[in-house]
Amino acid sequence: MEIVEFTPEREQYAWTFGGVAPIRTVQPGTVLKLWTEDAFSGRLQSASDKPSEKLDMREVNPQTGPFFVDGAEPGDTLALHFVDLEPARDWAASATIPFFGGLTATDRTAMLHEPLPELTWIYQLDREKQVVVFEALRGDFRVDLPVEPMLGTVGVAPAGREVRTSLVPDMFGGNMDTPEMKAGATCYLGVNVPGALFSVGDGHYRQGEGEACGTAVEGAMNVTLIVELIKGGAPVWPRIEQDENYVVVASSRPLEDAWRSSQHGMIGWLGELYGLDPLDAYQLLTQISQAPLANVVDANYSAVTKIAKRLLPTGEAYGGMHRYLREQAAKL
Amino acid sequence: MEIVEFTPEREQYAWTFGGVAPIRTVQPGTVLKLWTEDAFSGRLQSASDKPSEKLDMREVNPQTGPFFVDGAEPGDTLALHFVDLEPARDWAASATIPFFGGLTATDRTAMLHEPLPELTWIYQLDREKQVVVFEALRGDFRVDLPVEPMLGTVGVAPAGREVRTSLVPDMFGGNMDTPEMKAGATCYLGVNVPGALFSVGDGHYRQGEGEACGTAVEGAMNVTLIVELIKGGAPVWPRIEQDENYVVVASSRPLEDAWRSSQHGMIGWLGELYGLDPLDAYQLLTQISQAPLANVVDANYSAVTKIAKRLLPTGEAYGGMHRYLREQAAKL
Amino acid sequence: MEIVEFTPEREQYAWTFGGVAPIRTVQPGTVLKLWTEDAFSGRLQSASDKPSEKLDMREVNPQTGPFFVDGAEPGDTLALHFVDLEPARDWAASATIPFFGGLTATDRTAMLHEPLPELTWIYQLDREKQVVVFEALRGDFRVDLPVEPMLGTVGVAPAGREVRTSLVPDMFGGNMDTPEMKAGATCYLGVNVPGALFSVGDGHYRQGEGEACGTAVEGAMNVTLIVELIKGGAPVWPRIEQDENYVVVASSRPLEDAWRSSQHGMIGWLGELYGLDPLDAYQLLTQISQAPLANVVDANYSAVTKIAKRLLPTGEAYGGMHRYLREQAAKL
Amino acid sequence: MEIVEFTPEREQYAWTFGGVAPIRTVQPGTVLKLWTEDAFSGRLQSASDKPSEKLDMREVNPQTGPFFVDGAEPGDTLALHFVDLEPARDWAASATIPFFGGLTATDRTAMLHEPLPELTWIYQLDREKQVVVFEALRGDFRVDLPVEPMLGTVGVAPAGREVRTSLVPDMFGGNMDTPEMKAGATCYLGVNVPGALFSVGDGHYRQGEGEACGTAVEGAMNVTLIVELIKGGAPVWPRIEQDENYVVVASSRPLEDAWRSSQHGMIGWLGELYGLDPLDAYQLLTQISQAPLANVVDANYSAVTKIAKRLLPTGEAYGGMHRYLREQAAKL
């Protein structure tokens, strides 16, 4: 396997999906060892750093990429297998940003309230215990939380000539913010433009489902992934395969539409896997679906539909691509 | 412990929360052994039974109850501990009902489509293997699914003089359809009227999160529960405590409002448990929340916020009520 | 025409649709001269009256009624023709109520903000100029606004054994808060229970579309209406006929569902009036619909679909009922 | 006044806001006489033309532009005054497109229904009577409808480096589909990039509010407009000024968020015009707002907040820009 290492300089960050020239061309089968900056572009470093003073909202969620995948054509399926996600710093940050988040008025859910207080929490990483430490700002509550690294943002260039900020999740992936995007997972994305032009970023040392305040435990991440290409078969919405689960992530508003789309996508996948009629798949899904929310805070909300493979007969998605990639990963 | 057994006659079913005279008065501490009919009132018995022909939509979700809890006053907290949920039949049913469900036009999400085909799936229960059997109607797909019994509908009489059908979930509980309502769980409900007037029903032999088609594996259920009363402390939204988790269930539309309310409710609970400031609780919840949807099909949608106790310092909700009820249950 | 006059005593107010014994039985064709209290139950009388101190939220939106209409059966259509709406006081009130309204966090759109300031505006009525006077509380802005009296709340007992507070709009009508409910209009409501059990209340001396802050220019009202009964023909959602317009009001969440239902209802009405195929009616409606919002603040949001009769061939709704009622009204 | 005439060649159409090189540079004060193709790119010409066969969904809503406005900088306000909208053909078209529209499942409101029938309606324009003729496809219903020309799509390049399809409405304007965008109106748009890069298109010979089926009476249009530039003052959401009204158009999902944003925008405008405190403006708006929906069918829904100037003291928006442009227009 070819291994490509890449750490972007600050001026090389991508801020959008689409609209950026590729930083590298890679062949299917390549292993990428990437460094990604945190969602705050590294600008929140202490509890006294106020988001409104330190952040430039045009420069959040910096992406590492985009990569041009040789041979990828519209209608193809890009497979990104995450071999390893390793915190690249010993600390991470989270914050309440004015008029951003799930339990606050926003620029869309416009209200007449003053913004909530701006606060920044710094989490220290204890690599030995594999925990990050939550410390209350108002009181002496303190608790260790297991590190569970994930990537908030994984996507390709959008369809329809569009260019979208890296804050948005949609059919092209993007800022889905789902804890399912973790080491051991394979993400399948429909290709919209030649070369796919994928990028990754927004590492979270951990995140709850829904990402209530809008920012997870945000930290720079070392990302090892394998790129593969499947001709044809582009799914409408991003899919994730793990050893134990099939996952579909859809992003829209209101939240029920995101959920509907993710369920619809899974009904389609069940049809591909088992030849199930849509109504039978609808019925089966009704009884076995998990539905852990991803985020209810971004420009689109992201809902997850997830099925445990143990509840299903043996199936083979994309010709066994996930198993193959797990085997490749084991060789590294 | 006093043990009260009750199996309603068909004419004793309650179809609403509120508006029905109590069927029994019970003392706090009482064990209830109840039988509940399925959501279809037992009318769907074979794959040839069409919902539109067999069902009377004014008589679905029959409730067993209501029970008048001696001493319960508005502002108090009713605790219902589910000791055991045992399928009362060897089969269960699910169906697509015209213009009802998550991936169909409905009376609210009004569209010009014809209804989806009406289909009924009968699930056989294998008590030895503890599975129900899904059999596709269109093809020969067949799979065993573990029985995971739960109650779709648990509630008290609403506030504000209202009477609501047993199809609706809201602050009073009702048709929340969450898989969290299972044996071993304690449900806390705010009391709105003297005696609380709670009832239960809508047994599911299993259900996925979201309940996509609108009906789970619906079956009659034998329910063993213990009733307790906590003076004061009424939560805004129903809470559930399990050995491993704290859970808040909120129901509204659009789905993001249900999620917001359940997160808001959990922030309040974290404040009660640990004296956390709301913004600190918001931050902590952002990193540890689970958010498994309950239903996206009923008159209100129900969203769940769930926290694993193992992530938190030891806490004691309602003076240790759940632990006490677990001990009581162990004596039965 | 029989004329019945009725002014409720305070203890006779109804607070719900359904669940209340009729205050009078009336024959179809009866003229009712009613007095209705304002939505605040008359408790906000000066700019220093704080809603949180003066209001009991269980006693807002008092209704005058319910009236049992002799001969009304489920499936019938109740026609209420508003002959005259006359302010019954020389002042009216509006207010920002904590966590109630369109541009604030609410009990459903739960957030972590403090409530907006509680403010009360008193409007003086100038009967000669037929205006109410808006005076800014913070500054010296002042403007006369034309009086345009309407009723916020008109409804019948709900279906499905339900009892709903007078704050809720739904298929039974209720707190729709649409400026279309004015003198000269005929409201058609589907009958759900014997006698229909209708009531009216919540007079507004004027209101904008959407009712942003949640309370209009709220004032006691003298209401003259004629009751008529049409056998059968119950519409799903409330309809209003004016000399110039056909109107359908639907109430749901999210707001697009309210809009969808009102459009769907109008497509049905166009089918009744002109025998139009649903897809042709959908197309025609697309080009001629008005869609002035009613309220985006109540427990359900209300959307209006409205068509100017001048754009359509002559039609006759309900056998010319509106024209007949206009003629009857002219005789008073 | 300099007058620039421009009719794009087919290969000159723009399909996005942003991401396209300017077709012309114009000075503030310039009069533009433009031709715009219809939303179907002229491909639906008879009732037998099926959208799924004739349309390329990547090539709908062709834009005439973009124009680089000399001197326009981010934060400035672009004023576009529509002097005249004149149908450029003697016919127009409307259609039901599979899974597109307000009363159908869509790619976002994903369901399991088959698509609604694909139908195309051709409207003949009678210039003398100034009507278009609706003819039912299923039956012999036929009615003349007044021509009320408007532009569905008016916008500038988006902020945040984005490029959006011409099907989307958002803060940059775009496919707002409001009947308020008619001759005599001045549209104010915040400038996001040097030169503003505005374009126009999507002429409608008439359209109802909400645009239920997703397509209005779509026709090629001759557009005469005057471009002006105001330094600074960029509004968050597009504003429209007419002789009689102030209008704010906001676009989001769910629809209540679009409405909230448009109301919030108007409260800001009232503050600019009269120095009103936000809470006083909220109160005043509650009593005088009109809220005619624009579209509930596009990628974002668009809601309108509108105030009749006659209800307000004399005000002057943007230093009297609208009046000035009306005077300029009168000289043409």
Automatic annotation (TrEMBL), chains A, B, C, D:
Pfam family, one: FmdA_AmdA
InterPro entries associated with the record: FmdA_AmdA
Gene Ontology MF: a single term: hydrolase activity, acting on carbon-nitrogen (but not peptide) bonds, in linear amides
Name under which the protein is recorded: Acetamidase/formamidase family protein
